[in-house]
Every structure is written in C-alpha cells, then in structure tokens.
Design goal:
Blueprint: H1 46-59, H2 70-89, H3 91-94, H4 96-99, H5 106-125, H6 128-145, H7 147-159, H8 168-171, H9 178-190, H10 206-214, H11 225-232, H12 261-267, H13 274-293, H14 301-305, H15 310-313, H16 328-367, H17 376-379, E1 400-402, E2 431-432, H18 433-452, H19 456-460, E3 467-470, E4 474-480, E5 492-497, H20 499-519, H21 542-555, H22 571-586, H23 591-598, H24 603-613, H25 618-633, H26 644-658, H27 668-680, E6 684-690, E7 699-705
Parallel strand pairs: 1-2
Antiparallel strand pairs: 3-4, 4-5, 6-7
Helix pairs in contact: 6-7, 6-9, 7-9, 11-12, 16-18, 16-20, 18-20, 18-21, 18-22, 22-24, 23-24, 25-27
Length: 713
C-alpha cells in the first residue's frame, strides 16, 4: 500500500509540513526534524493521513470483515484513497485536512462521488480533462510570452519532423487547433515528456505530465477513452502509438472482441461495470459499521446506510460476467492448431531452447570476467553460436533465424489505416527462438483454456508440481481457485485434464525449470522462466499472456470476418467456450457438474454463463431444452415434484398429437422437433429455478405450460 498519493494541492497525503512527502506520520512540528525547511501548518496532512490509515486498518478487523482477502482489501484501499483525492480536490467545501470525511453527506456520495466515478471514471470524478486542458492553455501562453522558449520551439519543429501534425485518424480528436497542437508537441519534447526508447518511443508519458501540471497521480489506464484519444493527438506523428491504440497493441488486424478506445467513445459506454456498484455497496456497508464504532474522520453511520445508488443505477452499466464466449469455429480452429504445434514442435523446441540457453550461459560466464558484453544481441552473431548449425530439421518449418524476438526494438510507424499492425504478420515468414517459445506458451494456454476451463489468474499462479497422475484415471491439474469474490477465501482445487493438456503443461514446466536452474531462481511457479528477453528469467504477467495469444492468433491466421477483423482469444473466452460445449453436449441436467468444474459457488452463476454463451443462438438452446424434455418424458431423467403436473400434461398432448398410446412408438427425431415447436411458440418453457433447501440443492428445472386452449390443433 503506497500512502504517498499526491493531492490536488501539489503535496502528498504524507506531507509533514516541511516536506511534500515524508517517511513518518508521527505528529511533530519540531524544526529540528527537517533542517532548512520552515514548517507550514496548512500543508501538514499527517492528521488526515493517520485517520485514513486507521480506517483502512480497522476495515480488516473481524468485527467489520469476517473474512477479507488480499485482493478485496487492496480494492478497498484504492476505493478509500480515491475518496480522499476527491475530498481534497474540494478542500474548501469538506475541510479534509481537519475533518477528513466528516462533512460528507448522503447526497454528496450518491449524486457526485459514486455517480461521477461510475459515469466517467476518475476523469470525471476528479475533473481531469478540464484541469489538464487549462494547464496546457497556460503552457501555450507561456510559450508566447517567452521569446527564448519560442525560439527553442521553432528550432525543435525544424529539427524533428515527427512533431508535425498526425495523420487523419486522430485529427477529429484534437484538443487544440493544429498550429497550437504542433507547438505543444515541441514543448513536450523539450521538457522530456515523450518516451525515448523501444516500442513506446514518441508516446506521451502521461503520469509525469499530470503530476507536474495538475498535481495528480494518475495512470493512463484510469483515464476515460475520450481523454486518452485527445492526449493521443499530442504524440509524435511517427510514434508507433496513435490515438485509439496503445504500445501493447501488437495485433496484425483490428480485433472483433477487444474493443478499441475510439469504439468505446462512439458507443458512449460507461467505463465501469456493475461490479463497481456491488463492490461499493460492500465498502459502504462496512464503513457504516466503522462509523458506529470508530467515528474519527467519518460521518455518522446513517450517511452511509442511506446511500441508494439510484443515480448510478440509471447508467447503462455493463452487467457482471459480460465477457464474450469464443465462437465454436474460432475456438476449435485455435485448439486444432495448438495441438498440432505442441505435437509437431513442442518437445524438440524445448530441447533445442535448453541447449542454446546452456551454450549461451557458458559463453556469458566465460566473457563476464573479461568485461565483455553479455547481451544476447551480440552473442547471437557469434559464428560459434550460430543457430543454423544444429537446429533440428523438425523445427525447419518455423524458420527460426535468430535468438531474440523479431519484434524486439521495433520503433517505426507500424499501424495501418484500419488500426492493424501489419508487421505482426511477419511471424509467419520467420521468427526468433523467443517467438517460437512464446507460441508454445500460447498453445498451452489455448489447450488448457478450451479443455480445462481455467481462469488466467489460476494459470499464472500454477505451481511447478501442478500436475498429478492417478493410475487408471488420468491426469489432474492442481491450482488455486482464482475467484476471490468480495473477500471470500480462495481454496485449492484439483480437476481432471486431457492427456494433451498435461503434455503441453509438461513441456512448459521442463523449459522453465531449466531457465530457473541456470539463473538460480528460487521461484517454484510454473510460468516463472522464459520472458521476452532470452537472457533473462522472470514471471509471466497477464499482459504477456494476452500478447502471446495475440501472436498465436496472427501466426495461425484465425479467419477474418466480413469487415476484415480477427478474433483474438482470451483465457476467459475459452473458459466460457468450455462451459458452452459441455452444456451443448449434456444439457440442463448437468448444471451442478459444470459449476463444480468451473469452480463456481452457485449454479445461478453457471446458468448466467450459459445464457450469455447462447445469446443469439436461440435455436441451439431450444434443441437442448427439447432434448432434456424428451429424456424426462421417456423416463430417462426424473422431473421435480413441482413440475409433475406440467410433465403429465405435455405427455398427454404429445400422445394426442401423434395419435399414439405410448411414447416409444414415436420417432425420437419427430418428438424432439415437436417439442422444439411448442418451445418456440411459448406453449412450453423450461427454465432452472434457483433455491436453497435443506438437502443442499440450489436449483430445480421447472416446466411452465400455458392454459389448455393453447394446444388446440
């Protein structure tokens, strides 16, 4: 927890009146503590700081939070620090230095803090757009009022053509007229606000800019899409990042499932989801308890308890669990290629990578005492370490021609007019050994994601000994449950996986074990090993997993849609595909099994997965329901007691329709087709009803039948 959060006054919450940020929150005004700096009472925030700390620490008290996981605790810390920033932004109104949150009322929370945060994120809540715009206007005025600075600006514009106007894709988002935008870019270049190296070269460094101009600690991820687009127009014109894209974007084609920044602006979607409301409800309920037991710095508990979220709920917030499901054709296409890659190249690629790594490590050890560079870029060029000399023939189709990635150090204008990155397609022409290993990792993610339905966080936390084999049964994956919902404890689970998934995991385990051994790394994580740098050893982050999957989808050329866009897989989309596939095969009677495998606590959550996965696939859902109804009518499954009369009625109607005395005389295909028809007409509806009973059941399948006159033939 970093308490050094800068307030709108230009000093940190940890200011002691001498320094803008200090290492101690002990209350003292002794001049001897900080020599040479006079004490300023109006900038001493330690009183407010200690009250915030008290609130955060007591939040985890057993009387307030019976169980409070680390993730949930960090969420509350970020939530309460945002509230602190907001009240300090309105210091004249709330007097937070002395009273912290005591002057807040329910209207302030409902109609301002929560509503603005939900509708426009921190950009609207902290008024970031108008504040940064005013600051930049002042910069332009200072340029015009300083002849020496103006001369430097003109010189920069002459020497750096990259400071000229960007292309047409960003012109609609300009914050200032073109001439002023150009001069602002030159000023940003002079002050060092552009990133200087790597794929981010020429990109605006937002965090230091906001800190210096408006005294605000904020990351780019917390800014609204419109503001990001307007700030993107200040990037150098030849920078790899343009408005609407980030330096992490490395996809060959525009994506179908991953929303671009400019698309989010046009759709006018709020930046937050319904999870924000649920999370805030819990925080506010606990703050109400804190106010009743520890009122220092907090308003009365009634202020919290009377928050209704009514203004926030009028917003069109995306529902929980709105991750799309990977289309079957896309998921199966990727799964097939992943299996082929693992079986064709996996073992030989791992063996060869370990061999090259050992050779390079020995060479680096030999060169280190001589003071010679140990960088892979140099070692890659040594004739004695030539890759082509002993590369296995089985790896020839990969066209590996270097050690490090072919994308390393690229810093050229590489975005196409439609938002793709054509250079990403060169992975099919040739690649580095690092790229091949990244593809192998992606294959493991695809196979495990589509056949074992594991979350990304569960994959990232896998231990080296995550595989277990039971004779006569098969392979099992041991993992920590990744969902830490509002403070509930996570647990350790074991689920069966196919042999192919175990093979893919085993290859990555063998590869990373070798890396950790050579680097003498103590970590026992499965994914701690190969990174983007062949010469390094480290952990694989969530962003890197997505980059590996992007690379894989471009490498296998996932088919484009009619607009020329490509589906780029994500782990949760594959997880939902698994649930879709299992439900499609086994139907309504197996919600418990699906939920158990996914690690869901309640079948209602599993059903939400299913409904969203079948969105737009009404015919398929009717087929599944008709198959379930057919099995009930045929006695292969038992109906719930409450549905007994409805089942009897449907059986009578079916027999009358086909003119038979027994269901066994009816062709199964004809029976299912008829059941699909009455389902489509709304005469019969079959839905799970979620309950809690003494036997531990949490749902039952209900049959709902219309009145008798609905069956008149």
């Amino acid at each position: 927890m970093n308490w050094h959060r800068m307030m709108a006054t230009g000093v940190c919450l940890t200011s002691n009146g001498y320094e803008s940020r200090s290492a101690s929150s002990l209350l003292t005004t002794s001049p001897a503590k900080v020599s040479g700096n006079p004490y300023q009472a109006e900038l001493d925030y330690r009183h407010a700081l200690n009250r915030v700390k008290r609130i955060v620490f007591f939040y985890r008290h057993p009387r307030i939070s019976r169980r409070c996981g680390t993730t949930h605790y960090c969420q509350f810390f970020q939530w309460i620090m945002t509230l602190t920033e907001w009240v300090f932004l309105h210091s004249e109104r709330f007097k937070p230095q002395l009273h912290l949150f005591e002057n807040i009322d329910t209207t302030d929370l409902d109609h301002e803090f929560l509503f603005k945060w939900a509708s426009g994120g921190k950009t609207e809540l902290l008024d970031l757009e108008s504040r940064i715009e005013k600051a930049l206007i002042n910069v332009l005025a200072s340029i015009e009022g300083d002849p020496e600075l103006a001369e430097q600006i003109d010189s920069s514009l002459a020497d750096l053509p990259g400071l000229t106007l960007p292309d047409h894709r960003v012109s609609e988002w300009l914050m200032f007229p073109p001439a002023q935008t150009t001069r602002l870019r030159a000023w940003l270049e002079l002050k060092g606000y552009f990133r200087a190296n790597g794929a981010s070269r020429g990109r605006l460094a937002i965090q230091p800019l906001f800190r210096d101009l408006i005294n605000q600690d904020v990351k780019a991820d917390h800014l609204s899409p419109p503001l990001l687009l307007r700030l993107g127009t200040l990037n150098q014109a030849d920078a790899p990042q343009q408005a609407g894209f980030t330096s992490r974007h490395s996809r060959e084609k525009p994506s179908i499932n991953i929303e671009q920044v400019d698309q989010g602006v046009r759709d006018q979607t709020p930046p937050l989801r319904m999870e924000f409301v649920d999370m805030s409800r819990l925080h506010i309920r606990k703050l109400s308890l804190l106010s009743a037991n520890c009122d220092a710095g907090l308003p009365p508990s009634t202020v919290w308890s009377q928050v209704t979220f009514a203004p926030t709920l009028t917003l069109d917030l995306e529902p929980k669990g709105s991750t799309p499901t990977a289309p079957p054709e896309v998921a199966l296409h990727c799964l097939g290629h992943a299996i082929r890659f693992v079986l064709s190249y996996g073992d030989d690629l791992v063996d060869y990578a370990i061999k090259v790594k050992n050779r390079l490590h020995a060479e680096q050890v030999r060169r280190a005492p001589l003071g010679i560079s140990r960088h892979v870029s140099y070692l890659d060029k040594l004739p004695t370490l030539s890759l082509r000399s002993d590369i296995p023939t089985s790896l020839a189709p990969l066209r590996i021609d270097r050690i490090h990635s072919i994308f390393r150090g690229k810093s050229t204008p590489i975005f196409s007019n439609d938002g793709g990155k054509p250079i990403a397609g060169t992975i099919r022409e040739h690649m580095g050994l690092v790229d091949a290993l990244h593809l192998l990792e992606a294959c493991m993610f695809v196979i495990v994601g589509t056949t074992a339905a594991r979350r990304q966080i569960e994959l990232r936390k896998l231990e080296d000994d995550c595989l277990a084999k039971i004779v006569g049964t098969g392979w099992y994956l041991k993992f920590g449950l990744g969902k830490d919902i509002l403070g509930n404890a996570q647990g350790q689970l074991t689920r069966c996986i196919p042999n192919l998934a175990a093979t893919a995991v085993g290859q990555i385990r063998r590869l990373n074990r070798a890396w950790r051994s050579l680097h003498q790394a103590a970590s026992k994580k499965l994914l701690y090993g190969v990174t983007g740098n062949f010469d390094a050893c480290g952990n694989t982050t969530g962003m890197q997993i997505n980059q590996r999957l992007d690379l894989f989808c471009d490498y296998i050329e996932v088919p484009l849609d009619e607009n020329g866009h490509r589906w780029y897989l994500r782990t949760h989309e594959m997880r939902r595909f698994w649930a879709y596939s299992f439900f499609y095969k086994f139907g309504l009677g197996e919600l418990h099994t699906i939920g158990w495998f996914l690690g869901h606590r309640e079948s209602e959550q599993t059903w939400a997965y299913i409904r969203e996965s079948f969105d737009g696939r009404d015919n398929e859902m009717r087929q599944i329901k008709a198959a379930y109804a057919s099995s009930i009518l045929g006695g292969r499954h038992l109906a719930h007691d409450e549905s007994g009369q409805a089942v009897t009625k449907i059986r009578e109607v079916v027999l009358k329709h086909f003119g038979c005395s027994q269901l066994t005389l009816i062709d199964s295909g004809d029976l299912q087709a008829y059941l699909e028809n009455i389902l489509e007409d709304g005469i019969l509806e079959i839905e799970p009803k979620f309950i809690r009973d003494v036997n531990g059941a949490d749902y039952e399948i209900m049959w709902i039948v219309r009145p008798k006159d609905a069956f008149n033939d």
